[in-house]
Amino acid sequence: MGVNRVLKSADRKISIVFILLAIGYLSLSYQLPPYPFVPIDSDLVPKVLGFLLIALSIILFLNANPKDQEEKKSSVSRQDLRIFILVTVLIILYISLLEVIGFVIVSMLFIFSCSWLLGYKNFKVNAMVSILFPITVFYIFNYLLQINLPSGMLPF
Amino acid sequence: MKRIFALLLLIWVISSLAACKQETKSKSGEEKWVPEKAIEMVAPAGAGGGWDTTARTVAKVFSEEGIIDEDIGVVNKEGGGGAIAWTYIHNLKGSNHHMFVSSPPLIFVPLNGQTELTYEDFTPLANLIADYAAFAVRADAEWDNLNELFEDMKKDPESISIVGASAPGSMDHMQFVKIAKEAGVDVTKIKYVSNQEGAPLTDLLNGSVDVYSTGVAETVEQVKAGKIKVLGITSPERLEGDVLSTFPTALEQGIDATFVNWRGFFGPPNMDEDAIQYYEEKFKELSDSEAFAKIRNQYGWSEMFMGHEEYKKFLKEQTEELTELMEELGLAQ
Amino acid sequence: MNTVQGLWQGFQVAFSWEGIFFVFIGVTIGTLIGMLPGLGPITAIAIMIPMVYGMDPTIAMVLMAGVYYGAVFGGSTSSILLNAPGVSGTVATSFDGYPMAQQGEAGKALAIAAIASFTGGTVSIILLMLFAPTLAQIAVSFGPVEYFALMFMGLVAISSLSDGSAIKALISGVLGFMAVTIGIDAQTGTPRFTFGNANLLEGIDFLVVALGLFALAEVAFLIKNRNNVGIEKTQNIGSLKLTRQDVKEMTGPLLRHSPLGFILGVLPGAGATIASFISYITEKRFSKKPEEFGKGSIKGLTAPETSNNAATSGAFVPLLSLGIPGSGTTAIMLGALLVLGINPGPLLFQDHPEVFWGVVASMYIGNIFLLILNLPLIPYIAKILKIPRPLLISLIIMFCMIGVYSISFNIFDLYLLLAFGFVGYLFRLFAFPAPPFILAFILGGMMEQSLRQALTISNGNFMILVESPIAIGLFILSILSFAFPFIKNRKIQKA
After folding, report:
1. What is the pTM of this model?
2. Choosing among A37, A38, A151, A156, which should be mutated to test the B contact, i.e. which has the most B CBs within 10 A?
């Protein structure tokens, strides 16, 4: 039986990932500096959790049905994957630019481009929402609620 | 007659003040520095905590009393026990329009090894207020003063537990350690429990723990209601107020130690001398104002004004004292 | 001063023009803030403090209390419609509320939530009124041992939070528990699993996890299904009308979780979020049809929605009768009382009865306002679902970002939000349930801390855990709830 065959089931692959995660977590738990003034130190619960995760992952591995092929995984089509990656890139851009160019402009750009990317063809409505929405939200937050969203490059 | 005189005096004061203002404005850039744009005041925590409250009330009094004309925006930067905000301000080297509010965690957090920055990386502008610690027990507890408590702790440290809202190595813990050590208690044997989710006071009231280490203001109403008694506070002298004045200090019980929870404002590194001077004066004016005195009263804060130089010296002393203490506990990194 | 006199005085304040006006303002602001994902009552009330300075203390408290319970009331809306919890107390609402909306019954789900909220709120005000003096004692009856037992009871039920594999539910729970160990450990001051990153020192915010695992993960699925044919069904709002059968379904949970939520709210360490989770899992654990939960069960929606609103009123007990804040929001209201010149403490009840009774009386009115405000608006609010999918998706993402940003004002938390979005998506892809993760995240953290507090107090002696009658009672309940499904199955087999 080849490795590929053993790991064919998605659950088996996941259980391996979790075991690795638990090992990493445990090794960090063992490195926690001791604090001498309490009966139960900060490392006990994490150690229990780490071993528990390993045990549960092993059970998951053994219970997994190798015939249970990865139907679910294949349901993510190439095109969906491309859109996912692009939306993620947009979100990362949004986060990293939020405090630089300010909430209003970055939100306008985000809403417009994200909706367009997801296939919204009505440019007029899209543009209107993208412009009006961030301004309204900004106004409500900064003036009515007095929560200062980053104004960035805008003068107010 | 008197009234008219008073009115005239008032008009004279107001008009001369107004004139003053115009003068400084017209001379701006030549002699006296004044802010050129909105000032950003950072509270290194989320909305609602002690830092946030201080920043928001100070900003409000500055504007309402007309002490500072420019807008003051309060910005919250939460995380790392303050470290996130400190890094943010530290990166604004030389800015004259940013400041943050701080208190003893600025000393504790670096000592705990959770940030590289210390107070020396910033420009202390002015300290405004002081709070003191109180050590409370249940009203029916067997101890009536700190010495009785500490005697029992020396005899049988395992039987007495202390609760506070912060983690070991931070304020509620260290303020107790500092006083207990001076009284001769073995500080490595202190049983300290931190309760951050629920209210530590409930643990005292229901008998789970024996001593509650907290701020003076938190105890007043409970003492009034006869639920708890305060064995000692950490101020140099007795405080003023109906109930407050009944709290004995540790000093008067023969324990030669105090602890102050100071609160003041800091600017980024390399702030201009003129700007430092400007803020120092403005904070002094704020501290002396009646509006701020009223707020101090409401929150039970004591006045403790220190200007730039004095503040620096004070912080140095505080850091040295606490470093020694934390090293003894093996907490200093 | 007896209850009747006090309440009379309270109603006089609450029914004054000023009183009615500010209750209305309070609950309206609360509802709006509650609906925005992430943004919660804490921030709103903290920001109001400087504004209420100088106001009549009772009226100011009436206003702020309105914001608080209004937010919990309104928070269910975004949980149900978008799977994006509006406040932390309504995370459990989305477990069954969102599936209901997906099945084209958004209107009904919102109506059930509104009625459950109203009932929970109103019943707990009556309990508050009747038992106020004795309740103060319940509030301080829980120490570390009792909290440990309560959290233990909640965690035991984790395996039941899955419709598929119990192992997967347990793994999800362990992962959630692991996530909450990140940050400075309160009992030792040791930073755990922070990788030297200062952003992680204070741990991960509950709402970051909740919005990531639920709202963003859902967005990923919306993206995938954006062109599906079945979409018309989810855009369907459905009728608001409840059938007799629906009402029958709701009655049990309403009766059970109003008092349960209220008592959990009274405990300073529990509060609305924990109350809603405990109500959800106990309802499921003792249900005759647990398999319906998580798929749009009326009982599963009613239980947490009743409980969180009941707990919100309960949270005023320790605040107003003892001066002890039980949650972040009530801690801020304690600060507000100081600003208003009222000293919060055990004497407040005696010295300022008008504040206590004014708030209580205003809550009756507030809850009625909320019902009137929310029910007619449901058809309009539910229209959100008619927004073209691509646009709706972009807006949800933006609101999640801004909601999280307004909690900490820290960009790092937004990256964390995105990361939890991915985790949530992968969970669903591989059929791991997300609720155990969030449940362990909130209960596990507190369980560890209270256990270690108890053991520090007892010098490491585990016997302390079985020395408290309340704790023993809760442990017995845990065993019962663990055994109940097996007992039930045997009965069915015998029959």
Report:
1. 0.88
2. A37
